[in-house]
Amino acid sequence: MKKPETIQKWVDEERPGAVAEAVAKTALDGGYGLVASIAWAIGDGPVVAATSAGKNGYDQAIERALIEGFFGELERLRADSRVSPTLVGHCISSFDVLFLWRRAIVLGIAPPSWWPVHAAPWKADDLQDTMLMWCGPKGGFISQDRLARILGLKGKGDIDGSKVAALWEAGRYEDVRIYNADDVECCRRIWCRLTGEEAPDDESEGIVLATQEAEDEVMQAVVAKKGLAKDGQGRVIPSFLLGVTSTGRAA
To answer: 46-71: per-residue pLDDT in tens?
Structure first.
């Protein structure tokens, strides 16, 4: 086989898989990966979710605005409650918090000064990782889907994290947004079971876009002080449920 034919054969048969593998390798790397979606909820308030997709797919300006808007929401919450929020998530200490911090640095965004990028697992006022709460800080791993099913809760359904990159590449951005929001709702119910907090009566009423109207609605949960934890001095600590969905790119 001649060399040009060999190259074309590789392009036709091997290149798609090689590109997909390269993208997958960067998806969890905050230096090269991208924030596909951020979803969050305060206490038992509604889940707010958005993606970094524009009309032509991923848009860095939208990713930057999404991260800045998210940090701004946290700072407003901190100002209203006069205490730093407790971030809650599954594997949040090893992925979400660090990945967002890295993306912020890469994009030239200043993270909140209190952002718990190096928080110790036992400092529950900074963050509460449901994976560590179940497995303990010395090791072990359990997926959120498996833990949810052990606790008799609804799992992930047809979409899991391994399918996000393919959905993103296919332009199914709304599916990615809904997947991330469902993850936050599931994590909230796991956290409530692990802490003895009362879960919302019904699953979050729909999934709203990260708009000003949504932010105003979310902040009502802070005023009502529903589903919020307290620190050792009895101060209310807003429980800020966080979910980050990432995708990769060929580095």
So the answer is: 888 889 999 888 899 999 999 998 89
Query: Quick one: how far is CA 7 from the chain centroid?
Result: 40
Q: How many domains does the chain have?
A: 1
pTM comes to 0.75
Cα gap 115→34, rounded to integer Å: 19
The neighbouring-strand residues paired with 53 are 58
Reading the block at residue 57, the tokens are 């797919």
Give me the CATH number covering residue 176. Answer: 3.30.420
- Alpha carbons within 13 A on the beta-carbon side of 89: 28
Domain of 122 in residue numbering reads as 3-247
- Note the pLDDT tens digit of each residue in 156-179: 767 777 788 888 889 999 999 988
Instruction: Report the chain's C-alpha Rg in angstroms.
Output: 19
Distance, CA of 50 to CA of 48 (rounded, Å)? 7
Q: What percent of the chain has pLDDT over 90?
A: 25
Count of beta carbons in the 10 Å neighbourhood of residue 80: 12
